[in-house]
Design goal:
Order of helices and strands of chain B: EEEHEEHEHHHEHEHE
CATH topology of one domain in chain B: Rossmann fold
Number of strands of chain C: 11
Strand order of the largest sheet of chain B: 6-7-8-3-9
Radius of gyration of chain B: 17 Å
Number of strands of chain B: 9
CATH class of one domain in chain B: Alpha Beta
CATH superfamily of one domain in chain B: P-loop containing nucleotide triphosphate hydrolases
Structural class of chain B: alpha/beta
Number of helices of chain C: 14
Number of domains of chain C: 2
Structural class of chain C: alpha/beta
Largest sheet of chain B: 5 strands, parallel
CATH architecture of one domain in chain B: 3-Layer(aba) Sandwich
Shape of chain C: globular
CATH class of the largest domain in chain C: Alpha Beta
Order of helices and strands of chain C: HHEHEHEHEEEEHHHHEHEEHHHEH
Oligomer: heterotrimer
Largest interface: A-C, 58 and 62 residues
Chains: A mainly alpha, B alpha/beta, C alpha/beta
Shape of chain B: globular
Helix content of chain B: 25-40%
Radius of gyration of chain C: 22 Å
CATH topology of the largest domain in chain C: D-Maltodextrin-Binding Protein, domain 2
């Protein structure tokens, strides 16, 4: 059966490029790359890296961004869930936050940058009436050397992600009964949840938290837009070295990618220590029986932070949308003096090709990822075995920093002569799309009542027919949602697209980040808007198509 | 040789080293073999083995023959062994008639003929004219009857009943029992019923096998 | 089987190698070769009006010569150079991925030194070369002190000019040289900045200041003399040490490039900005990006001037198409459109007196805009230093300021 090839293909797909890519990164880092004259092993690239000015600062910045953004976003999510899970406010916020997951990082970062800049939307709204500013103050907010705006930008984008994975874990704990029990013992809402349920929930979301740390400590696009430039984060400098006309810099870039791997690993190790510390504190409080009954301030603070983070992204995106149709718009004017579609009209013809590439890469990689995911899940049904190691493997592409293996992979592609083709791009996207499709489809797939299949078999239907006419239609909504997630991931991918597409294949995201350096807010607005629109369109399809197809059937509604 | 009906020939099922079931028995057409046992005794496992969807965790041997045809050598979809669970499990994305049309064998050609058979089957369970309904809008008893009609139109060689009445109210249960057993008898189907309800066994009227405990 | 594959490979290599480079002297053959080719033009893509102009050129080339022009948008020209270097290292000596590069200065010097350019020189054999102003624009034949030798074809002229908003009182007295710019900045803290080197415009600012402050300007026209480097650049870094505290964000952050600086002028964050294109401000006014009160000024003592070019890599897959593209770019029609501030506003490389009357009329009809200085108001030109200075200055800048935090 075909399904037998599903799991090996998935394992090969998820680990193959990463292992090959890591090898392609590590070998040049220790001086071995015959194509560029590196015939012998040496420590020169590493020495050169150690001598690069400000390298320690860059590495520390990456480490700090990774840990701080993960810690802050997890804290907000933890407090919010602890304080509000099970209430109607909770489900309303949940609906508000969910669409944010599909907003690509770069678009959110642009919007955020324009929101908080001294001449940004917030300052414009408050000036000159409240601040007295006739012109923007000379304050270093965006691109600050400490990376605070970078961390803030990452936090507002990671909160929706962590909230959604927490939501997926919540049904597996006895929320209501535990809440009642804790309350009857006199514990405050937050304390009761944290003592009794959080350890169980956290165990489930640990890998996603690691993924956040890995992403935040090695992100390129957000760091280019919001991060400092003197010096930039490690990952941003790596890209610079990678693109240096001096080809020998590839050795340095590879050594740097190795350092990136170490930085991310260090961040996760430090996190492990923080986990122990946090667990010990929580246990200590619990053993002392601290009731923390008066947690109203903390509860409202958690809600406020949650709302503020969502608002920041929404307001930033609204600001960008406004810029895309703005005429002259000077500080401190709250709104543009005139509105015109000039930028859209001028940009439209140039959007066609990147848009086509974005759609092609997104749809193809999602289709392949869905097929592979289905094969794996069907194989799991057949064998009845749920590989525990498979879960860790699924997260591999999300936990190994992108730069660390993409450099090597890019080099291998180049040497193999597959550079910059659509298929190479789809393949690389697949590595990142596959985990998300698998993660979002596996739970509903496993929850499917398999007696429906027994009935169909008893009615004489073949496995394929049963899949096609019973299981897939009944799972239409989760299948399409998984596709929309995969498509959104593909649309937002920056580094893999830039490296493998090599400028020949551009997507809306690479164009938007390239334009970011140009600072033309109007054009950035157009691209960021499109960047946001594509995943939203995907989710709209995932919602509307099943709703229309099965509009006559009540049990098929959500 | 002429062995009409369903024959369990030396069927043994074990979970690891623990033997669950060992059975050899013939069920004549229209006869109901009732298997009783506490939960966990493996009585549903026997149905899974006959139907061909036994979990890989079990080991099983022995043959299941229907009219001298060795079912154990066939994949589930070619065994044509209909099954009813305690839930009606109507396909929620198809209308009532859609559920039946899905079940009618492909050998019956022509849309009109298929729809006529579906309608006839619905009438047979007192649901005439309900074909266009969304199954989710039916009452529990109506759903159970559609499930019965669905399995009957598929022309099965045998019928497996996995505690099919346990979720129904007391009076509905009585009606359904009668309906199911009379339909099975009329169609000349060999039936295996798995239950822990003595009343079920009594109403079935056939031989009773007690396993486990 | 293996043998067969090998011989097929050898055959493919032979046929590929056998394609001779196109010769611009036989222009009809070049045009015939070029038809149906796809030209990958690697050009900085950070400015929408330039992107739109390239888009227009692509449409014209498609209609006239059947060439498909693809703009590979770069954030740094060095990336295109890197691609060619990588292909040479991988032994890909034909069928390369880059057909045309927008280039000048250090990148040209680097490609020329490494033998990465289509040779022998071809630019002066292009049919439209007849219109090029080689007599009055010396930078067309000498790019950052490096002889061009026909290895790149001119595309536009650049001169460092400053912009300010005349509606703001802060710029009552305009700086007239680097020294007075420093005084102005100290009197108006936080209102001046420059793009972070190695951005091209930012590095050019360093060269402008160094050219003004160096004792003997001729030193800069020769390659860097390491023994005297520190002494030569000492005045520049002393200047920057004083300037940075008075700059935007106290010199702890920098705009990424010129368009970012332009946005900061529009946002009222900066009062004085500068560009390498005299009509940038007029273009921006026409596009609604800057208010119509923005005006240009330059230093009476002179500012940097240079020419920007297009070059063809030695392994270009579509060299003929690239030649036709280069020739089209110096046609009077394409040059006049480029000089229109509503389109781009980049000054022409052509000589008005060499043009046919109707072509000359195209240029005379252009409204250069309120914010554009006339050619005679642009002030004297300061020669670009040898490309080696750019590298060293950028490295030194980065060491001192780029990693300070």
């Amino acid at each position: 059966m075909l399904t037998r090839f599903g799991p090996p293909a998935a394992i090969l797909l998820l680990s193959g490029p990463i292992l090959a890519g890591l090898a392609g990164t590590i070998l040049p880092a220790v001086g071995y790359l015959p194509a560029l004259g590196g015939e012998t092993f040496s420590l020169d690239p590493l020495r050169q890296l150690a001598a690069a000015p400000g390298i320690g600062g860059s590495a520390l910045l990456s480490l700090r961004a990774g840990l701080a953004s993960a810690a802050l976003s997890l804290c907000v999510v933890m407090l919010f869930v602890a304080a509000w899970a099970g209430t109607s406010a909770f489900s309303r916020i949940q609906h508000l936050i969910s669409p944010l997951l599909s907003v690509p990082h770069a678009a959110a970062a642009f919007g955020f940058a324009f929101l908080i800049a001294p001449s940004g939307l917030v300052a414009r709204l408050a000036s000159p009436e409240l601040t007295g500013w006739q012109r923007p103050p000379d304050l270093l907010i965006v691109n600050d050397p400490m990376g605070l705006s970078l961390i803030a930008g990452l936090v507002v984008k990671e909160i929706p992600f962590l909230l959604l994975v927490t939501l997926a874990a919540l049904p597996q704990v006895p929320l209501d009964r535990t809440r009642q029990l804790a309350a009857s013992l006199g514990y405050g809402r937050i304390a009761g949840f944290l003592y009794c349920l959080w350890p169980l929930v956290y165990r489930q979301i640990r890998l996603p938290v690691f993924a956040v740390i890995a992403f935040a400590s090695s992100v390129v696009d957000v760091a280019v837009i919001l991060g400092p430039s003197t010096p930039p984060t490690l990952a941003v400098r790596l890209i610079g070295w990678m693109n240096d006309p001096e080809l020998s810099m590839r050795f340095l870039a590879s050594a740097g990618a190795l350092l990136q791997l170490a930085v991310t690993a260090a961040a996760i190790l430090i996190w492990l220590a923080l986990e122990r510390f946090g667990a010990a504190v929580l246990r200590g409080f619990c053993m002392q029986g601290r009731r923390l009954r008066h947690d109203a301030v903390l509860r409202w603070l958690a809600l406020g932070m949650m709302l503020a983070s969502a608002l920041a992204v929404f307001a930033g995106l609204a600001g960008l949308a406004l810029w895309s149709v703005a005429g002259l718009w000077q500080f401190p004017e709250t709104l543009p003096r005139s509105i015109s579609l000039k930028t859209w009209v001028a940009t439209a013809p140039r959007v066609v090709e990147p848009l086509a590439t974005t759609l092609a890469a997104g749809l193809l990689s999602t289709a392949v990822a869905l097929a592979l995911t289905l094969l794996c899940l069907m194989r799991e049904d057949e064998t009845g075995a749920r590989g525990r190691r498979a879960a860790a493997l699924i997260y591999l592409p999300l936990i190994v920093p992108q730069a660390a293996f993409l450099f090597g992979l890019h080099l291998l592609f180049l040497l193999g002569g597959f550079g910059a083709s659509l298929w190479a791009l789809v393949f690389v996207h697949l590595v990142f799309v596959m985990p998300y499709v698998f993660l979002s489809l596996s739970d509903p797939w496993r929850a499917f009542d398999r007696r429906f299949e027994a009935i169909a078999a008893g009615l004489g239907k073949s496995r394929l027919e049963t899949l096609w006419r019973v299981r897939l239609p009944m799972l239409a909504r989760p299948v399409l949602t998984a596709c929309a997630v995969g498509f959104a991931v593909s649309v937002g991918l920056y580094l893999p697209t830039v490296l493998i597409g090599a400028g020949r294949l551009t997507t809306i995201t690479t164009e938007a980040v390239a334009l970011a350096s140009g600072g033309n807010r109007r054009v950035i607005g157009v691209y960021a808007f499109l960047q946001m629109l594509l995943p939203l369109a995907g989710f709209a399809v995932a919602t509307l198509v099943p709703a229309l197809l099965f509009r006559r059937f009540r049990a098929m509604r959500v | 040789m002429d062995h009409q009906g369903l024959r369990l020939d030396g069927v043994r099922i074990a979970l690891g080293t623990r033997a669950l079931i060992a059975i050899s028995h013939a069920v004549a057409p229209g006869e109901v073999l009732t298997i009783m046992g506490p939960s966990g005794s493996g009585k549903s496992t026997l149905l899974a083995y006959v139907g061909g969807f036994l979990d890989k965790a079990f080991t099983a041997c022995g043959r299941v023959l229907a009219d001298d045809l060795d079912l154990t050598a066939l994949p589930p979809q070619e065994r044509h062994v209909g099954i009813l669970f305690q839930d009606p499990l109507l396909f929620p994305h198809m209308s009532v008639a859609g559920n039946l049309l899905f079940a009618i064998p492909q050998s019956l050609k022509g849309r009109a003929a298929r729809e006529a058979l579906a309608e006839e089957a619905l009438a047979g369970v007192d649901l005439a004219g309900m074909g266009a309904r969304d199954p989710d809008t039916l009452s529990g008893g109506q759903k159970a009857r559609v499930a019965l009609a669905r399995v009957l139109v598929s022309s099965p060689r045998a019928l497996l009943l996995d505690e099919p009445f346990s979720k129904l109210d007391a009076d509905l249960r009585l009606q359904m029992r009668q309906l199911v057993f009379s339909k099975a008898r009329d169609s000349g189907l060999p039936v295996i019923l798995v239950t822990h309800d003595e009343a079920d066994a009594e109403a079935a009227g056939g031989p009773i096998l007690r396993i486990g405990g | 089987m293996k043998k067969l594959a090998l011989s097929a490979f050898a055959f493919a290599a032979m046929t590929l190698g056998a394609v001779a480079d196109p010769d611009p002297k036989d222009w009809d053959a070049v045009l015939a070769d070029a038809r149906g080719e796809t030209v990958y033009w690697n050009a900085w893509g950070g400015s929408e009006n330039i992107n739109a102009y390239i888009e227009w050129a692509g449409a014209e080339l498609k209609a006239r010569h059947g060439i498909s022009l693809v703009h590979v948008k770069l954030d740094d020209t060095a990336n295109a150079v890197a691609k060619v270097v990588a292909e040479k290292a991988a032994g890909k000596n034909a069928g390369g991925s880059v057909d045309l590069i927008w280039i000048n200065g250090e990148n040209f010097a680097s490609m020329k030194r490494q033998g990465l350019l289509l040779s022998p020189g071809w630019a002066e054999d292009l049919p439209n070369w007849a219109y090029v102003d080689v007599d009055n624009k010396p930078t067309i034949r000498t790019d950052f002190t490096i002889p061009v030798e026909g290895l790149e074809s001119p595309w536009g002229m650049a001169k460092l000019v400053f912009f300010h908003d005349s509606a703001r009182s802060e710029v009552a007295v305009l700086p007239t040289d680097a020294r007075s710019l420093l005084e102005w900045a100290e009197a108006n803290p936080g209102r001046f900045s420059y793009p972070q080197p190695p951005d091209f415009i930012g590095s050019s600012f360093l060269k402008q200041v160094l050219s003004e402050l160096v004792e003997d300007r001729s030193v800069l026209l020769a390659p860097v003399d390491e023994a005297r480097f520190d002494a030569t650049v000492a005045p520049l870094f002393a200047y920057l040490d004083k300037l940075h505290p008075a700059m935007w964000r106290s010199g702890r952050a920098y705009p990424a490039n010129y368009p970012a600086m332009k946005q900061l002028l529009a946002d009222n964050e900066l009062d004085i900005i500068f560009a390498f294109n005299p009509s940038e401000a007029s273009s921006a006014i026409a596009n609604g990006e800057l208010p119509d009160t923005v005006r240009s000024f330059t230093f009476p003592g002179g500012t940097l001037a240079n020419t920007h070019f297009v070059a063809i890599p030695y392994n270009a897959a579509s060299a003929a198409g690239a030649l036709v593209t280069a020739n089209f770019l110096i046609s009077p029609e394409a040059q006049a459109r480029k000089q229109d501030p509503k389109v781009w506003g980049d000054p022409t490389v052509l000589a008005m007196d060499k043009l046919e009357p109707n072509d000359r009329a195209r240029f005379e009809a252009l409204d250069l805009g309120v914010a554009t200085l006339k050619p005679d108001q642009l002030g004297p030109a300061i020669d670009e230093p040898h490309p080696s200075w750019m590298d060293r200055l950028e490295g030194e800048w980065k060491r001192r300021y780029g990693v300070a935090n």
